[in-house]
Amino acid sequence: MKTIPDILKKKEWIVIGLMSGTSADGMDAALVRISGSGTGMKVRQLAFESIPYPDEVRQEILRLASGTEGGSHDLALFSFFLGHISLQACRAVCDKAGLSPDEVDLIGSHGQTLWHIPVPESYLGYQLTATLQLGEPSVISEAFHCPVVSDFRVRDMAAGGQGAPLVPYSEFLLYRDDKQCVGLQNIGGIGNITVIPPHASLSDVFAFDTGPGNMLIDRAVELRTYGAERMDTDGHLAALGNVSAPLLQFLTQDPYLLQAPPKTTGREKYGQAYMDQLLERAKGLSLEDLSATLTAYTARTIDIAVREHCKPRPDKLIIGGGGSRNPTLLSMLRDMLPVPVLTNEDIGFDSDAKEAVAFAILAAECIHGTDNSVPRVTGARHPVVMGKITQ
Q1: What is the rounded distance in angstroms from the CA atom of residue 56 to the CA atom of residue 369?
Q2: Are residues 106 and 61 in the same domain?
Q3: Is residue 223 left, alpha or beta, with left meaning phi > 0 and alpha meaning psi from -120 to 50?
């Protein structure tokens, strides 16, 4: 078993980062080589692999993430189940890189968020925030014989933060620019933006969730096709449809969009109850028109974020996540936004691997004992070292 003292003696580490996002479409694994810490860290991606979830797994995640289904029995089984899926992803990315699992020094696992409460709620006489990510790290550590860092969000929340977004720390290390203000927009199930001013220190970085990313589009397509399709692949349906101005106007009245950062959101706000209300208003719209409208809504949430909440305004916006693969969405963004829109691939990065790489970086910083949070982003009282270590 590799111990933390063993790892700290090495100049370079082989690290796997794992991510399962709001879209609940699969487990992503990025294998990277890391040396150094803080602004001196060097990161090189060696391989990326994604394990798609079968329909029954995805439906179980959505059921448990609904907030109304699943008790302790289901949650216990699901956590160990996802631990085994995480293990499969680790083995797959090692195979792709041509590395033995014995060569891996460290694994960072985000797990699957099932519920997130960033704003305090009353519970048994206390006002509490809370979050729940599952995916048992001991299953991974037992097989790979190395430490696993997991459950990143809770330490920031204990310090008064919202526990999200977490990726801005790694974005600061990888994307900062002395000459330009860089905007980084991830479009997964939820959208989130990070802004890094020129010559920025970590305390200058700000970020927040912009609102729904792909999740409304995906869910609408899944429901309207009775499960035959999970998403609007390549934005094909949206490209064939027309945007419903009344529905788009209704959607953009969402008060979350104008709420000042720090702020974070997720399936607890934009889940099935929200979708039921949306589809009631969308009666009479074809699937193509509904897809076009929801795609335009995602673009509009990002446009509002850039215009209303980004000061300074980015000199360019770099799109990552699954939304970067949607040409219709990218076209709408380029039409709406007052800044150039690029993708990660345009600047030599991998959109698909970005969040998994982030959790490899956060895990490495946890082992170093380096603060890996951004209090300005989450609203925490002070920086913390996020992550629990299993070994």
Answers
A1: 39
A2: yes
A3: alpha
Whether 147 and 202 share a structural domain? no
Assess whether 279 and 372 both reside in one domain: no
Residues 318-324 have a mean pLDDT of 94
Tell me the three state secondary structure of residue 277. Answer: helix
Domain of residue 89, residue span: 4-167+354-390
Q: Count other C-beta atoms under 10 Å from residue 280's C-beta.
A: 8
pLDDT tier at 67, thresholds 50, 70, 90:
confident
Q: What is the DSSP string of 177-239?
A: -SSS-EEEEEESSEEEEEEE-TT--GGG-EEEEEEESSHHHHHHHHHHTTTS-SS-GGGHHHH
Q: What is the CATH number of the domain that holds 188?
A: 3.30.420.40
Decide which of 347, 365, 382 is a domain's last residue. Answer: 347
> CA dihedral defined by 298, 338, 288, 239, rounded to 10 degrees?
-130
Q: Is the domain of 258 the same as that of 157?
A: no
Calpha distance 43→41 (Å, rounded) = 7
Do residue 205 and residue 240 come from a single domain? yes
**Please, is 53 exposed, middle or buried when counting C-beta atoms within 10 Å of its C-beta (0-12, 13-18, 19+)?**
buried
Give ∠ CA 201-22-313 in degrees, rounded to 5: 35
Do 19 and 161 lie in a common domain? yes
**Which tens digits make up the pLDDT trace of 155-209?**
999 999 999 999 999 999 999 999 999 999 999 999 999 999 999 999 999 999 9
State phi, psi for 272 to the nearest 5 degrees: -65, -35
* pLDDT (mean) for 336-343: 96
| Amino acid, single-letter form, for residue 119 | V
pLDDT band at 251 (very low <50, low <70, confident <90, very high): very high
Q: Give the CB-side neighbour count of residue 68, counting CA atoms within 13 A.
A: 6
Quick check: 387 and 169 in contact, CB under 8 A? no
How many domains would you assign to the chain?
2
Residues sharing a CB contact under 8 Å with residue 283, sequence separation 6 or more, in sequence order:
none
The pLDDT value given to residue 252: 97
Most distant CA atoms of the chain, gap in Å: 64
Query: 186 and 321 share a domain?
Result: yes
Q: What is the average per-residue pLDDT within 325-347?
A: 97
Question: How far apart, in Å, do the first and last CA atoms of the chain sit?
Answer: 8
Query: How far is C-alpha 261 from the chain's CA centre?
Result: 17
294 and 194 share a domain? yes
